[in-house]
Design goal:
The complex is a heterodimer. Chain A is built from 18 helices and four strands. In chain A, strands 1-2 form a two-stranded antiparallel sheet. In chain A, strands 3-4 form a two-stranded antiparallel ribbon. Chain A folds into two domains: 13-60 and 118-418, no CATH class; 67-107, no CATH class. By secondary structure, chain A is mainly alpha-helical. In chain A, helix 6 (135-152) packs antiparallel against helix 8 (190-200). Chain A is globular, with a radius of gyration of 25 Å. Chain A is 66% helix and 3% strand. By secondary structure, chain B is mainly alpha-helical. Classes of the chains: A mainly alpha, B mainly alpha. Chain A binds chain B through residues 10-11, 13-17, 137, 176-178, 181-182, 184-186, 188-189, 191-192, 195-196, 199, 207, 210-211, 214-215, 217-218, 221, 225, 238-239, and chain B through 1-2, 4-5, 31, 35, 38, 54-55, 58-59, 61-62, 65-67, 70-71, 73-74, 77, 135, 137-138, 140, 180-184.
């Protein structure tokens, strides 16, 4: 036992092994978070869609209580049985609550089982590969769509730093000095997946979808990169962990209510930052191929877009990639504009002074809450706005956003120069 | 110690980049060539990352792999790939290609040899063996970190983050805090102060090129 502890101690004392082990743990954690959020956002999407369109949404995948009949009950109403089993009177508040929750027929899971069952269905479906496709690229294209968002998530900080006896752990898989650029670069690579999927399908409409996808992604990448420059001028750093730390100390970018956020300069900078926010969020929509920018998979023009020829899990990978891109995009927006993991109002420093690990846990939860809120926003927009026309998308990207983003940089520079 | 890992990764990525570069010319299918080129850019970016030039690496990915090559692919996909695959390359063209490639290789070799530490550095194979030895958990205390051989030639000036931050005019506290080499800052300062005029001239040349491309590519309507 002692030797094992000693061995662990010696391994952890080695800088490299400590770094490797902590990184692997963080990697698994962030990977699990992204995948869980992909599933969760599918559920949110369908639930909110049902809500907005005034219909029930996914509600057929509960755990049916009539299965109890199998286990000896002859009653038609299983709820009565269950209540009787636990000795609860039928007119008590618990029984009424159960009735209000419509527990008579089944245990409600609020449709949460639906994404799991969908996944199972897609796994078990027959996979058809048309004979006329270019097999190699047809196979790697879905991987190239799903992979980049997962890799891009590596730089997103999900909590602050904790110090252990072996060294400090920064709660961010790769604490790079080029945070946002890394995300732009890696998520920009998913365009290969879309265009290769369109081309390798060897069929007209998927090809058009692939071309649209690559044109759109490249166009909006330009405006996206330019729109964050005013922010970076304010933060003075490209490291996302430092950016969030700055926001924790001096007020979130869009809610500067404490620290240095109360100065005149920060409030004067609010105008360019609000413009940046609008441009950036719209570009995230376009980069994630979400409605109103889902030109590449526009059924009315293109049958199904770049994934027309795909079936089964390959088809699902495209959608997982889209949702993963949405999750990473939301995480980036939250990190840049809404303080990332910071709890706000100086609570971070107070908590960290009390106990490192509690602070990190709270910050992680805060980050997840903000992420869910932003994913909800994404879904809300999808079910509210209709799809743009192709020429409108291109015009918006090149003739509006590019110019406004460049002018915005000069505005921010002027404010920083003249208002001290 | 960090250099130990990065020197192993350097050989892996450099070999992969060379292999992909070979694939660009070896494949008959233009799309395969383009994809190999994208991979080659990616591995080159990885080599930059290993050297601590993060900004350069990410710009390589954004600009070349993420934008320029996608536009290449865009054009190539519109070609008739089947016809391209059956084109026979002529011998005189191959000769001209070899001559041009040879001249470029000569340039690159000349520059590489004239770098500090290019000829008097340690043998690469020895460095690799040493670094693998360093990675064993038992071998922590045997060698202080300073003595680990630098991966890209021992005579190269060492990139010290704290010292670099000092030269940038930061105060001592932030200099001590600096963990990464501030390559973005250094590059920006060099570009916008020392090399400002060439930078502006190049920008104008690019702008003229863009305007020219639009003017040539635009269909002029007579109505």
């Amino acid at each position: 036992m002692n030797t094992i502890i000693q061995w662990c101690d010696s391994v952890l004392s080695n800088e490299i092994w400590f770094y490797l082990l902590t990184t692997v743990i963080k990697l698994v954690l962030i990977f699990a978070v992204i995948l869980a959020f992909v599933v969760l956002s599918v559920w949110i999407e369908r639930r909110v869609a049902g809500w907005i369109q005034d219909r029930p949404g996914p509600n057929r995948a509960g755990i049916p209580l009539f299965l109890l009949k199998r286990f000896g009950s002859k009653e038609k109403q299983p709820l009565k049985n269950v209540l009787h089993f636990f000795g609860i009177p039928e007119n008590s508040w618990i029984a009424n609550l159960c009735k209000w929750l419509r527990l008579e027929g089944e245990i409600p899971t609020f449709g949460l089982m639906q994404p799991c069952l969908d996944g199972g269905k897609l796994f078990l479906k027959q996979e058809l590969t048309p004979s006329y496709v270019r097999k190699v690229y047809f196979t790697i294209a879905p991987m190239l769509v799903l992979g980049p968002p997962m890799v891009a998530a590596a730089v997103i900080p999900f909590a602050s730093t904790v110090s252990t006896c072996y060294g400090e752990i920064s709660m961010c898989v790769a604490n790079l000095g080029i945070g946002p650029l890394w995300i732009f670069a890696i998520s920009g690579l998913s365009v290969y997946g879309l265009s290769l999927a369109g081309w390798s399908s060897n069929s007209k409409y998927p090809f058009l979808g692939g071309l649209r996808a690559s044109a759109q992604l490249i166009s909006y990448e330009v405006a996206m990169g330019l729109s964050v420059i005013p922010l970076l001028m304010m933060f003075g750093t490209l490291n996302l962990q430092d950016i969030v730390q700055y926001q924790a100390d001096n007020g979130w970018t869009l809610l500067p209510f404490w620290g240095e956020g109360l100065t005149l300069q920060r409030w004067a900078l609010y105008a360019p930052i609000a413009i940046s926010f609008i441009i950036f969020v719209t570009c995230v929509f376009a980069e994630a191929n979400r409605t109103p920018f889902d030109m590449a998979e526009c059924e009315t023009d293109l049958v199904g877009g770049y994934h027309t020829e795909y079936s089964s899990m390959k088809f699902a990978s495209f959608f997982m990639g889209e949702y993963a891109a949405m999750v990473v995009g939301s995480a980036l927006v939250v990190t840049l504009f809404f303080g990332g993991w910071s709890i706000g109002f100086g609570a971070d420093a107070a908590l960290a002074a009390w106990c490192d690990w509690v602070a990190v846990l709270c910050q992680f939860l805060m980050f997840l809450i903000k992420l869910v809120a932003f994913i909800f926003f994404f879904v809300w927009v999808r079910w509210t706005l209709p799809r743009f026309r192709w020429d409108q998308v291109m015009k918006l990207g090149w003739l509006v956003f590019l110019e406004v983003a460049i002018a915005n940089i000069f505005l921010a520079a002027a404010i920083m120069y003249f208002i001290k | 110690m960090e250099s130990a890992i990065s020197s192993i990764l350097f050989y892996v990525f450099a070999a992969a980049a060379v292999l992909c570069a070979f694939g660009v010319v070896a494949f008959r299918n233009p799309v395969s060539s383009a994809m190999n080129m994208a991979l080659c850019f990616g591995f080159t970016a990885a080599v930059y990352f290993g050297m601590g030039a993060q900004f350069l690496g990410i710009v390589q990915l954004i600009v070349y792999a993420g934008a320029i090559l996608v536009l290449f692919l865009f054009i190539i996909m519109m070609l008739d790939v089947k016809a391209e695959e059956h084109v026979r390359k002529s011998f005189p063209m191959a000769c001209i290609g070899v001559i041009i490639a040879g001249i470029f290789a000569g340039f690159v070799t000349k520059v590489a040899i004239s770098l500090p530490g290019a000829t008097d550095g340690p043998c690469p194979a020895l460095v690799l063996c040493d670094t693998i030895g360093d990675l064993a958990p038992g071998a922590i205390e045997e060698k202080p970190a300073e003595e680990t051989l630098a991966p890209y030639g021992a005579a190269m000036p060492k990139l010290n983050p704290a010292a670099a931050a000092m030269t940038l005019g930061a105060d001592e506290a932030t200099a001590a805090k600096a963990t990464a080499f501030p390559d973005t800052k250094l590059m920006g300062q060099a570009l916008f102060t020392k090399y400002n005029i060439p930078f502006v001239i190049l920008s104008f040349a690019l702008l003229a090129g863009t305007v020219g491309a639009v003017a040539l590519g635009r269909k002029i309507r007579k109505d």
